[in-house]
Fold this protein.
Amino acid sequence: MAEENKQEIALGMRELHPNPSQFTAQTLKDLGVEVAFGVHGGHIWQMCDEMSNAGIKMVLVRHEQAAVYAAESYAKVTGKLGVAFATAGPGATNCTTPLQQAWLSCSPVLLLAGGNEFEHDDTFTLQPANPRDLFRHITKWSQRITHPCQLKQYLTRAHKAAMTYPQGPVCLEISHSVLYTALPPRGVPSIFGEHALYVDQWLGGENGAVLPQTGADPKLVRDLVDRIYNAKTPIMVVGDGAHWSGAQEELRELVELAQLPTSVRRISRGALDEVSPLYWSSRIARNVLKEADLTLLLGMKIGFFDGYGAPYRNAVQINESPEQIVPFCKTDLAVVGSPKVVLRQMIDHVKARGLRPPDGRAEWTAKLSDLQRDSIARMRERAESYAGHKPAHFAYLSKTIWDVCEDLYGGMNRVIMDGYTFSGWFPPFMHARYSGQYQDSSEMAGVGHGIGMSLGTAFGDPGTRTCPVVVLMGDAGIGIDAMDIETALRYKLPIVYVISNNDGWLTGMKAITYGKDWGALGPQDRDPGGDVLPGIRYDKMFEVLGCHAEFVQDPADIRSALTRACRAAEKGQTAVVNVIVDPTVTNREVYSGMYTAAWLHIPWEKLPKRGKALRRNFMPMFPWDELGIPPMPMPDPWEPIPEEEQVP
């Protein structure tokens, strides 16, 4: 009888309904957001719950850095806005490094960060961080929301900012006070209305629309085409902009039409299939750049890793962003326009004029194709020569990893590069087949990002269910965010983490510069010095959680272990492969003047043999002849360092 007489109480009489976070959730849905990565907390529980209620998949990670890395990788894989969330204070500050990486990588990421109550500004309140000001220098736009009427407007503006080239991260700090502001009918809107300066479906009748890509001046397009067809030895170098503009189809068509030898970098790797005879890699760059009489730089974000443009002769810069057309690269022509649109303009122009590649172009392309083929063959042959070397050599490990990808999946696996030493060996063995297949940390050049990025990749690409993501880690990187492997396992993500275990941070430099047992350091550092505990069984750590785990000590077992790991990942069991590698084999860049300069403070008499040779070769400012120190042969970075060479 009591139930029959119970009065119906309207929703909102005993709870905050409607609430401001419903505006956030609905706007994100309207913008096409399907998944968000983060760690919840008291300042953002309302927002997280309403996003979940709206049907947005909420992926809870173990550390906020993994959330932003995941959002960045999701954006790279899908071309959509990647969304991360973090609570106030430490939640927000934990996002700093991955936001910087997204900024450098030009990746469209939205960070929704909790903020303190505006009533408590400039006091010792709970979990202060001031994300708006904290992230202002590493985002395209960073703003604080202090009233519910701003939510829809700012979210829409954030989407536009993040998705407009050059794409990049944005941060919206949502003050805790906003979430507890009553809305109509129990509250009152702002004097500017419930949704100030917000227009639904503002562009083309679609909330998730982005600004249209623009082409180049037709006169410049004609000039571009004429330069390509008049050149004897032209080349093209393609950067990130081709990927973000979705220019894969157009790039392949123009390269074939013009028979234009092309190299592709970073996230755009694979936009031109790397098994194409018209593809050339950095392995032969010295020969190519020396002979080229025209260099098209398409969508290139020229910086440190590109020699700041110094190697490029008769350069033409084509970029969607005037900011990325740089004045420190000697340039004959600059063209502003989307790579996708400009390429299509060029293709149409070539076809309209019925142009054919000039005489001599076939000889040029054949020469580069032969150089590329021979270089790869020599590299693979030398890597194979270390098949019996124990512990495993990075070259043989890298070759075998890609051979397994080719044999099992036709080379279609998405690969995420995290390991520092791995990054100096694996990339040339890979033959990328599609844009976005290979991911790294861009100019950030960090480690520890690969685990979070693998989460975003797996969520963003359903195809990884049958073609697992391969993440190449070092044991230093695995120590930064290892527990988010549990996140991958929890969501049954098809990921294989390959750990190159050499017992620490940059251990290869020990035998080159510091000597056996870090002898160039003070006694307090000698045990264990820069190392970590030896032989950590990362495989057992994650096997306990439920991962498929492999431990490899013999290089002969690498292929079978990787095959088993991939098959397990196909079934939704995240895999970890722990490979013991030679600690004296390091990234080949260590054998350079830049690294040699970093160790100039170490006394000559404390340097091992290779450290002495590198200093003698790269540092001409010292009076070597006067000191009676004869020239020394350059060490070979491929060769492991025997123990007798690891002492001064």
The two ends are 94 Å apart (CA to CA). The chain has 25 helices and 17 strands.
